[in-house]
Every structure is written in C-alpha cells, then in structure tokens.
Design brief:
five-stranded mixed beta sheet, about 400 residues, rod-shaped, alpha+beta
C-alpha cells in the first residue's frame, strides 16, 4: 500500500525554491564557503556543490510536515557539503531545518536537539583548542554554535511563546465556556423559579374560577350563581393583581422596583379562609417559631398548592393543614379525602407536585405525596438552620 506524503506548506515551498535559486546564483558567480585548495575539499569545482544544495532544498519542503526526517536528511547533506567547496545557501537552509525541527517537531525531539547541538558546540570549542592550542581554534566552536545551537535555541524560545499563547487561548475559551454554562444554568434556574412562582400565585385563583364558573353554568339557581360569580370576581381580581406585580418585576430592567414581598406563614390564615370560601372544609394547626424567609416561602407555597390540588381533586370531607417545628426542621403535612372521582373539578398541568418537590429539594429537604389509606397526604420536611431572634432571613 503506497504511503502518501503530506502536502508541503506553501511557505515551505517558497523557502525551498528561494534557497535553491540562491544557491544556484552563488554557483553561477563562483562563490563558495571554502577555497578549492582547502585540505578538507575532496570534490573540487562548482558542480559537486549542487548535490547537497538540491537535497537540502528538498528537505525544506518537509520542514513543517516531517521535521525530524527533514533534519536527519539535512544533516547528511550538510556533512556532504563539507567535502565540497560548499554553499552558503546550503548552510542557511540547514540552520532553518534545525529551527523548524525544534519548533514543529515532538517535544521530546525538541529537547534532544537542544542538548545535542549544545554538546556539539562545546565539543567544537574545546577539542580544536586542545589539539591546536591556537586562539583561532575557538572560531570552530563559534561556527558550530551559530549553525546548530543558535537556531535550536531560537526555535525553543519561539515554541515556548507559542505554547504559552495557545494555553492562554485555551484557558480563555474554557473560561468563556464555563461562564456561558453558568449563565445558562442561572437563566434556567431563574426560569424554573419564576415558573414555580407564577404557577403557585395564579393556579389557586384560576382553579377556583374554573370550578365556580362550572357550578354557575350547571345549576339553575340564581342565589348559587350569584355566590359563584362573587367568588369568581374575587379570585380574578386577586389573580390579576398578583400577575401585574410579577410582570412589573420581570419588565423592570433597572432594578428600581422593590421586590414583591414574599408571603409568610402569617398569611396561612387568609389562605385557609380563601380555601373555605371556595368550598373546602379546612383545619389549620400551626406550631413553629421564627423561621428563615426561604423556609416560610417554601412552606407557604407547598400548603397553597396542596389546597389547590385538594380543591380540584379531593373527595368531599375535611382537609387538614399541620405545620410543626421539631429538631431543626419544619414538617408540613396536608391531608385530604382520597377516593375515585369521575375526573378533576378543574384541569391541571401536573406541574404542582414537581414545583413542590423542587422547593423542598432547593432547601435540602424531602418531599413526598401519595395516597395514605383513605387520605391523600402531602409531606415535606424543610431544614431550619441558624435561626435567631430578629434574624432577617
């Protein structure tokens, strides 16, 4: 199976073509890096210079796609160039291959190239000085350092800057992603909170309106119809008022409006009176001390939704509401007669139980609802912590 070589980068093609043309120009004018009389020159004349020049130009095509292969082949080409008159273009392209191998190659290879070129520079400095004992021998180490170690060090510096920039960009993208996730979660939580509030504030009134309007339409009794219409008007006015307050809060983007006062357990008496006016036989039993505002709101809404469900689904009989504070928690219990009915007295969305369960879960409490013998029981336990006299919570 034939292996397809990666396509060279456009910039690498420009480097290869430029290096090859520059080397050919130097050959044409007879400029080399060494004289033909130099003892190291084994192949005299301009044409032997062409072989390592062409090979080095070909390696430049792989400087980005296969940097290690390009460097190994280029090393062989620069060694061959040493036994010819040499070409400055070949040497310059080799330095670029060292730079590219450190910049684009694997991290382990980049580190090895750093160590190898540094070691060659030290050897190229100390060994000639020890052998010839002439200050000019130090120039060999300088040449090795310029040709090998300097490009490797430059590539390492550029690589570090590039990696740091990529890491910073990645961190910025992750931070933006986390911020977007937090924003989405906050929006979702706020939407859920507003849905619970809207449901609990309005469902009770609308359920009463639906039930009493059905009674007014089905019974041919002017007195009963008058009473039903009175209840309908009261519930519609109260529901409309609560809707307007909620819409005002939602529409106010400046935050100048004061938030709607959260209902407290002190208002349970009025809530029960309203349920009695809607036809429920409700008993209320309260035994609690000071409570945090979130706990009072959750308990109030759970009782409110339970009474709404009793109004829609319960059989005739007594509904009991009991709240008791014991051992750092507030227990809420609402029971209503349970039995088989032809259908609910008013349609429901099924979101009431979900909302009550969410309210209890947000406070770290528990919630359960279901039949208990002849009764339908709603039970919630809401933790109460850090409650002191006069605590604004």
């Amino acid at each position: 199976m034939a292996v397809r070589l990666p396509r060279p980068h456009r910039f690498d093609v420009y480097v290869a073509v430029g290096g090859l043309l520059g080397g050919l120009l130097l050959m044409a004018i007879g400029l080399g890096t060494r004289r033909s009389a130099d003892p190291i020159t084994l192949f005299d004349g301009p044409w032997p210079v062409l072989v390592p020049l062409v090979v080095m130009a070909g390696c430049e095509l792989l400087r980005r796609t296969a940097p290690r292969t390009a460097l190994l082949t280029g090393t062989a080409a620069i060694c061959a160039d040493l036994v010819t008159q040499g070409s400055l273009a070949t040497v310059l392209m080799f330095t670029d291959l060292v730079y590219a191998a450190v910049l684009y190659g694997p991290l382990a290879s980049a580190r090895r190239i750093q160590w190898i070129t540094g070691l060659l520079t030290v050897i190229g400095t100390l060994v000639p000085l020890a052998v010839w004992r002439e200050p000019e021998a130090l120039l060999i180490g300088v040449v090795v350092g310029v040709v090998a170690y300097a490009p490797a060090a430059t590539g390492w510096i550029v690589r570090n800057h590039r990696d740091a920039a990529e890491a910073a960009l990645l961190r910025a993208e992750q931070t933006a992603l986390l911020a977007e996730m937090d924003r989405s979660q906050a929006v979702g939580a706020e939407r859920a909170r507003m849905a619970r509030e809207l449901h609990d504030m309005v469902a009770n009134h609308l359920s009463a309106i639906a039930i009493h309007s059905t009674a007014a339409l089905s019974l041919d009794d002017p007195k009963t119809s008058q009473e039903a219409l009175t209840v309908i008007r009261e519930n519609s006015v109260e529901g409309l008022s609560e809707m307007r307050r909620l819409i005002g809060i939602l529409r106010d983007s400046s935050g100048d409006l004061e938030p709607v006062a959260a209902p407290t357990l002190d208002g349970l008496g009025s809530l029960v009176d309203g349920a009695r006016a809607n036809g429920l036989d409700v008993g209320l039993d309260l035994d609690h001390g000071p409570l945090p505002t979130p706990v009072e709101l959750a308990a109030y809404r759970i009782v409110q939704e339970s009474l709404t469900n009793a109004l829609k689904h319960a059989c005739p009989g007594r509904v009991t509401v009991a709240l008791a504070q014991r051992d750092g928690s507030l227990a809420v219990l609402v029971t209503s007669p349970y039995g088989h009915r032809d259908g609910p007295r008013a349609p429901g969305s099924g979101a009431g139980l979900v909302g009550m369960r969410e309210r209890a879960a947000l406070l770290g409490g528990t919630f359960e609802a279901g039949p208990d013998g002849a009764l339908w029981a709603v039970r919630a336990v809401l933790p109460v912590t850090d409650v002191t006299e006069g605590d604004p919570a």
